[in-house]
What does this fold into?
Amino acid sequence: MLFVNRLQTGIDHSWRLRNFYKELQTKTTNSVYRESIQQAEGDKREHYELLQYVYRMLTGKYYSIENKKTDFTSFREGVLVALKSELKEAELYRDLLMACPGRHIYQPIFLIMTQVPANAVRFNSIYMDLK
It folds into this structure.
């Protein structure tokens, strides 16, 4: 089932990015940057929980995540990785939303889809400020 496979990808991305953002926020002393990254990290935690909820509704079980680490050599590089990841996720959730098998699944995906662009704006703002 293509929808479930994409859902698994979203679960993996949310978990990986949550951990990545936790590490990224420790690499800056700028409180505004840190606050923006903390907001994105909280969103990823929420996305992970919502996607696991949807996955469980569809399959009757929780998805076992793949623990992958995102490497970066500088704060600037990490912000760029975060920005690209958020933009990639926006496409994933758009596709999930378009393929939703029912209203009960549409709502959590819609919520996630509306939060991802806000995170992309946050990371874009940080990245532009670092230039």
